[in-house]
Write a structure and sequence with these properties.
Elements lengths: L4 E2 L1 H20 L1 H38 L19 H10 L3 H17 L12 H15 L1 H20 L11 H4 L5 H37 L8 H18 L5 H23 L2 H23 L6 H29 L5 H34 L4 H8 L4 H7 L4 H30 L1 E2 L10 H54 L1 H6 L2
Helix pairs in contact: 1-2, 1-8, 1-17, 2-6, 2-12, 2-17, 3-10, 3-13, 4-5, 4-8, 4-13, 4-16, 5-6, 5-11, 5-13, 6-12, 6-13, 6-17, 8-9, 8-12, 8-16, 8-17, 9-16, 9-17, 10-16, 11-13, 12-16, 12-17, 16-17
Amino acid sequence: MQPTKINIAVFIVPFSLLLFSIIFSQADPDGFLSGMRQANDWILTRFGWLFSWSTLLFLVLCIVVYCSPLARIRIGGKAAKPLLSKFQWFYIALCTTIAIGILFWATAEPVYHLHEPPARTGIEPDSPAAATFALSTLFLHWTFTPYSIYTLIALLFALVYYNYRQPFSLGSLLYPLTGKPLNARWGQVVDAVCLYSLVAGMAASLGAGILTLSGGIRQFADLGDSPFILPAIAGLIVITFIISSVSGLMKGIKTLSNINFYAFLALGAFVLLAGPVGYIFRSGAESLGDYLVHLAPRSLGIGIDREWSESWTVFYWANWLAWAPVTAVFLGRLGVGYTVRDFIHFNLVFPALFSMLWMAVFGGTAIYIDHISGTTDLYAVLQQQGPESTIYAVLNALPYPRLTAAGFLFIAFISYVTAADSNTSAMSGLCSSGISPDSPEPPGWIKIVWGVVVGTVSWVMVSGAGIDGVRMASNLGGFPALFLGLAAAAGMLRLLLKKAITAEIN
């Protein structure tokens, strides 16, 4: 077994860039935010269309792979043994990807769309059509498309790592496209760029988690605008996921994902039974039909105001892409011993269906409270207190509000810790040498360094620009990852089109 050690070439470049960003943001906050906004606007103006077309391509490719002979191939070869049971695999795949996102946005986003639908659609604000649009948009942003982004890249990594025995490097994703191993130096460049992207994406998600938790804490304690709340929350999250990550790949993450999943079930079942059950099912069915009819045009921003599409849909595609390469490393390692079709089931189909049900329950309840019953003016809460407070206003309209709010705080905390644990391990592995199926763990101190960097960047983003900081970090992180995703899509196409290659990896 080869010992692992740090790969300086991969570690130092993204670490230096991120350290510079932190120092610059503190020395000149206005200049830093201005530069971020300019870079963000440039990306959206010139490449927003590419994000939209690429993510739709990933979804189509996953469907094609699922129906192809490639789906029968076993990851790791015919004799490979699984690392996890199917249930445990599902829990981890669900809880390490977009879990904190569905907690933060499931009630806030539909209220935005209910009252501010895109003008070009001709939908009247606060109307039944707006309610349907709001929930179907949740399905667009939070179900099959984001999970297809993760699944496509993770599946290709699993095949090249286990079946082709290529190095533990994101540069190995290019192997099916080029037909030969990537030069070690270029592989290090790919890993360094993707590490930078992921830290931006993780910072964006941690930023959303910090805002969610701060909104909840203010429900229990009158802390006003204390400057210590955000860094304290960020510090607590970082310390917890570092401890879990250092414990090892198959220890902390399994425990966290189990807790996370059953907590999701308990809260979701409570809101469903305590909320407007009939309305949830009716609106969910109507919105599902609207989602399926408009999936392609709305994914591409057709018939939608460009500014709206960039602020919402492209923002999400960029966020998923920022996470995707390094998340693919983690998810790909878990797929050994199962078939490609199994991989798509447990990383795409089942998590997307769970997310759709979650959005129908929480999004439908929020729309009912604001639009039908008028119990609480959630739009006023959104405008006056921010999106982080919307979920607590929804819970306040249901029985046992303080108990459920406390439970939600716990779930939000565990959700981000679970996701950050897995990705910190993957990030640390990419900047370590000697990682292999037989020696999967990087040095613990590298995990600690990356955990501190992620926490600091997220705090800088949120404290300086709030939710706009979250959006900008997502777009900046997703931009370089977009091109690796396209290369992975091209490699997957080559595997599909070349029958000899399909036989070779069986």
